[in-house]
Design goal:
- The protein is of the alpha/beta class.
- It is built from 23 helices and 25 strands.
- The strands form seven sheets. It has a nine-stranded mixed β-sheet with strand order 8-7-6-11-12-14-13-15-16, sandwiched between helices.
- The longest helix has 28 residues.
- It starts with 7 loop residues before the first helix and ends in a 5-residue tail after the last helix.
Length: 763
C-alpha cells in the first residue's frame, strides 16, 4: 500500500508558494521543458500524458475523477486517450501517477456537467506510483513517464463514433464512409488508439447520416429524426389513413391485405429519402407492410435492409449496386417517379401517403459546384420538370436551387394525384410561407426544434397536408414542441402567416440626386472599405446627400441578408442608398431585418414583408424608435473613414456632434426611457475620449464622428488569456458599451418589435 504520510517538517521543506494553479503549471512545464497542449479545457496533454494540476490534493480520488471526465470527453471527440494520468500537487512537488487503461470503463461512461463537479463519490485504486519530484531521482522517474508516447485503446460505440469519424475524414480527406467502417473494423491508422469494432451497423442507425464523409453530408443533408418527433409524425400518418375509405376488394391476394384481414384499405406510405429509417421506426408491422422506403446511400441501404427487410413492401433500389457508395437508381431527383411506386399512383383505388424529411442542402452551394453527385440539381429530371412547370410570383425559378423544394414540388406534381392523397412533410415552413409550394389543405402539424436533428436551434415544420387545393388560407397554427430529458415539452401555439411582397419589391428607394457621381468607394459588411468585385456591374455612387447604404435580401431573417454601411456593398442590386431626405422612414426596414430570433421557434418561421404597404411610415413612434435604435446599435456598421477616392466619409447615423442624426434627434421629444438610452451613449463616448486622452497613441480621429460600433471595434480592444478568454484593455468602456447594448435589447423587444408586427414589416 502506498502511503500519503509525510512529516510536517518534510512537507515544509518542499512546499512552494504559487499565486495560482496556472503559475505552478507554467513553472512545471518550464522545469521539464514541455510544450503541453491545453486541449479540451484540460490542464495539459503531452504525448501520452494527461496532466491535472492542483495547489494541494487532499483526496486524489476526487481529482482523478475530474481527469477521467476530461478523458471521456477526449474520447467522444475522437482524440487519442493518453496512457498516463499525472495529478500534480504543486505545493509539495508530488505527482500521483495512474494508468488510464485501469479506468477504461469509467472513461467510456458519459458524464453531465463540468468535470470539476460531482467527484466526491468516486473511489480510486491506489496510484501506480507517488513520485516526489524536485530532486534528481524524482525528476528522472517523472521524465520517463512524460516521455512515454503510448495511448490507451478505446472501444467504438454510439458516443464516440462521430468523433472518430470526423478525425478519420480530417486525416483522410478523400476517404469514403466505406473506408471509415473498414478502419473501424480493422484499424491501421488508429491501430494503437482504438479496439477493432465488432458491432453491428444497426447500432448507429440514429446517427448514420453523421458518419458520411463531408461531401456526402452536404449532398444528403446530415440529419436524423429523434424518436420523440418520429412518433408524432407517425400520428399524422395514422390520421391520414383514418380518412381513407375501406376498399371494395375481395381479392384474397391483394397486396394491401394484411395477414388475411377482410376489410382493408388500399394505400402505400412512401419515403423517397428514408435515410436509415428513423421516420418509419414507430410504424406497426401492418403499416410497414404498406410502406416503400428509398435511400441514395449504400450504408443506409444496409441499415434499412437490416431493420426493415421483409417487413416493408419495398426498399428502393432493390439491390445495393453503387458507385462510390451512391446507389444506382436511388436518387429521387433523377427520375420523375420510382418504378416501385408508379403502379400505386396509377391505381385509382389506391392512395399515396408521402412521409418525408427531405435533404435541405442548397444546390447553389459547394455540392452544386462540384457537378459530381446529388447536389448537382440543375440537370436532374425533377429540376427540369420544375423549371418548365412551376411558377411563383414570389420566388420564381430561384426555388429550383434548393434541394428540399425539388422534393416538395415533385411530390405534388408526380406522386400525389388523388384528392385524399396526403403528404406528411418535415421542412422549414418557407416552402408554404413564401415559395407557394403547398397551396393545399392543411390538416394539422407541429414545429420541431432542429437542434435535435444535429443542427442549430431553429424551427422545422412537420405538417399533414391533403391533396386538395387551397390558395386562400393565409395563416396556420402550429404547436412548438421541444425535447427535454427525452420528453416532449410544449412551448405554445405559433401562428404562421404567408408573405407576398418583399422589401425589395416595395421599399427600395432608387431615386438619385444631381450631385451623384459614379466614382465612390465600396464597403464590406464589416463597415471598412473593400475592393469592387469583378462580377459587380453597377457603378458606385458618391454624394453629400448619401448617408449610408442599406443592404437587404428577400424575406429571410439572416445576418447575411442585412447590412448597414457608410458606402455601398459590391452587391448593390440587393440594397439602396439612404439619403438625407429618406433615411428616417427607411430605418424601420433595417430594424425589422435585424430581428434577433432568440427563441428557436422564431427562426425560420418569421420573415420580413412589405404586405402592410406604407402605413408604417405614418407611425411616428415607430419611426422615432427605429431611428434611435439604429444610431445606437452595433448592428449599424456605418463608420467614419478616409476612402481611397481621397474623400472623407463621416458616419452621419450616430449621435456625435454635427451629424445628420444629431440634428434630427434635437427635434424629437424623447420619453424618459429614450433619454436614458442617449445618456448611456454619451457615457460611452465620454469614456472613449478619456481613454484616448490617456493613450500614448491616439485612437480617436478628431475629424471623425463615431458610433458605438466603431468605438467597440477600434477602441474597446482586448487580448486573450492562455485559455482563449477575452481580456478587455479598457473594462470601464466595455462595461458602458454592455450597459447600452442591454438597454437596447429591452427597448427593441418592448417598443419596436410589437409595432413591426403590427405593420406587417415582420410576419
Amino acid at each position: 500500500m502506498w502511503s500519503e504520510k509525510r512529516s510536517n517538517q518534510t512537507k515544509a521543506a518542499v512546499a512552494l508558494a504559487f499565486a495560482d494553479e496556472r503559475a505552478g503549471q507554467l513553472d512545471f512545464f518550464k522545469k521539464f521543458g514541455l510544450d503541453a497542449t491545453l486541449a479540451d479545457y484540460t490542464d495539459g496533454v503531452f504525448r501520452g500524458t494527461l496532466f491535472e494540476f492542483k495547489l494541494t490534493i487532499d483526496r486524489p480520488s476526487r481529482v482523478l475523477s475530474q481527469a477521467i471526465k476530461y478523458l471521456s470527453r477526449m474520447r467522444n471527440r475522437g482524440r487519442s486517450v493518453p496512457a498516463h494520468i499525472l495529478l500534480i500537487e504543486l505545493s509539495t512537488r508530488r505527482a500521483y501517477h495512474y494508468h488510464s487503461a485501469d479506468y477504461l470503463a469509467e472513461i467510456e461512461r458519459q458524464y453531465k456537467g463540468p468535470p470539476s463537479l460531482a467527484n466526491d463519490g468516486f473511489s480510486a485504486e491506489d496510484p501506480v506510483a507517488v513520485i516526489d519530484y524536485g530532486d534528481f531521482d524524482g525528476d528522472q522517474t517523472l521524465s520517463k513517464v512524460i516521455a512515454d508516447e503510448r495511448f490507451t485503446r478505446v472501444h467504438i460505440d454510439l458516443y464516440d463514433v462521430v468523433g472518430w469519424a470526423d478525425r478519420f475524414y480530417d486525416e483522410n480527406p478523400k476517404a469514403t464512409k466505406l473506408d471509415l467502417f473498414n478502419e473501424l473494423r480493422s484499424p491501421t491508422l488508429f491501430a494503437e488508439l482504438i479496439h477493432p469494432w465488432e458491432g453491428d451497423e444497426g447500432d448507429f442507425r440514429y446517427i448514420m447520416d453523421c458518419l458520411n464523409d463531408r461531401q456526402h453530408r452536404k449532398e444528403l443533408g446530415a440529419f436524423y429524426t429523434p424518436p420523440e418527433y418520429a412518433k408524432l409524425s407517425v400520428g399524422l400518418v395514422r390520421r391520414a389513413i383514418a380518412t381513407l375509405p375501406v376498399a371494395d376488394c375481395d381479392d384474397a391476394e391483394c397486396p394491401h391485405r394484411y395477414e388475411g384481414e377482410c376489410e382493408h384499405k388500399h394505400y402505400v406510405i412512401v419515403d423517397r429519402c428514408a435515410g436509415s429509417g428513423d421516420l418509419e421506426e414507430p410504424l406497426t408491422d401492418e403499416e410497414l407492410s404498406h410502406t416503400i422506403v428509398a435511400t441514395y446511400e449504400l450504408k443506409e441501404w444496409v441499415v434499412l435492409n437490416s431493420r426493415f427487410g421483409g417487413r416493408v413492401r419495398a426498399i428502393t433500389p432493390p439491390t445495393p449496386d453503387h458507385d462510390r457508395g451512391l446507389l444506382h437508381g436511388g436518387d429521387a431527383l433523377a427520375q420523375a417517379v420510382f418504378s416501385e411506386v408508379a403502379p400505386y399512383i396509377a391505381d385509382p383505388t389506391c392512395n399515396v401517403i408521402l412521409l418525408e424529411n427531405p435533404p435541405y442542402s442548397d444546390a447553389s452551394g459547394d455540392a452544386m459546384q462540384t457537378g459530381e453527385a446529388r447536389g448537382t440539381t440543375k440537370s436532374t429530371v425533377v429540376a427540369q420538370q420544375m423549371r418548365e412547370n412551376f411558377s411563383s410570383k414570389t420566388k420564381g425559378l430561384q426555388a429550383t436551387k434548393e434541394m428540399a423544394n425539388l422534393f416538395i414540388w415533385s411530390a405534388w406534381f408526380n406522386y400525389l394525384a388523388k384528392p385524399n392523397d396526403a403528404f406528411i412533410l418535415y421542412a422549414p415552413i418557407k416552402y408554404w410561407k413564401t415559395h407557394e409550394l403547398a397551396n393545399k389543405k392543411f390538416i394539422d402539424g407541429f414545429l420541431f426544434n432542429r437542434k435535435h436533428f444535429h443542427a442549430s436551434p431553429s424551427a422545422i415544420a412537420c405538417i399533414l397536408w391533403t391533396n386538395a387545393d387551397d390558395a386562400t388560407t393565409e395563416a396556420i397554427r402550429l404547436r412548438a414542441l421541444d425535447i427535454k430529458d427525452g420528453a416532449i415539452t410544449d412551448e405554445g401555439e405559433i401562428e404562421v402567416r404567408k408573405v407576398h411582397k418583399s422589401f425589395n419589391e416595395k421599399y427600395f428607394d432608387k431615386h438619385g440626386s444631381p450631385e451623384d457621381s459614379a466614382d465612390g468607394i465600396y464597403c464590406g459588411t464589416n463597415g471598412y472599405e473593400t475592393q469592387r468585385q469583378k462580377a459587380t456591374t453597377a457603378v458606385n455612387l458618391y454624394s453629400p446627400e448619401i448617408l449610408g447604404y442599406l443592404h437587404l435580401i428577400g424575406f429571410a431573417l439572416d445576418r447575411n441578408n442585412v447590412a448597414l454601411t457608410r458606402a455601398a456593398l459590391p452587391r448593390r442590386k440587393n440594397g439602396f442608398f439612404l439619403r438625407r431626405d429618406n433615411f428616417q422612414v427607411k430605418l424601420p426596414l433595417f430594424a425589422a431585418k435585424s430581428f434577433p430570433q432568440r427563441k428557436w421557434y422564431e427562426k425560420d418561421v418569421y420573415c420580413t414583408s412589405a404586405d402592410g404597404g406604407d402605413a408604417y411610415e405614418r407611425d411616428e413612434q415607430l419611426i422615432k424608435a427605429c431611428f434611435l435604435w439604429t444610431c445606437l446599435t452595433q448592428a449599424n456598421h456605418c463608420m467614419s473613414l478616409d476612402g481611397t477616392d481621397r474623400r472623407r466619409y463621416l458616419n452621419e447615423l450616430c449621435f456625435d456632434e454635427g451629424t445628420a442624426a444629431s440634428q434630427f434627434l434635437a427635434g424629437l421629444k424623447l420619453t424618459g426611457r429614450e433619454q436614458v438610452l442617449v445618456r448611456l451613449w454619451r457615457a460611452v463616448r465620454d469614456e472613449a475620449a478619456k481613454i484616448d486622452e490617456a493613450a500614448d497613441i491616439k485612437k480617436l480621429n478628431p475629424s471623425f464622428t463615431y458610433g458605438p460600433y466603431q468605438i467597440d471595434k477600434e477602441i474597446n480592444t482586448s487580448t486573450k488569456d492562455e485559455r482563449g478568454r477575452k481580456v478587455y484593455d479598457h473594462s470601464v468602456l466595455n462595461d458602458k458599451l454592455a450597459q447600452l447594448k442591454i438597454a437596447l435589447v429591452a427597448y427593441y423587444d418592448e417598443v419596436i418589435l410589437p409595432r413591426l408586427f403590427a405593420h406587417d414589416l415582420l410576419k
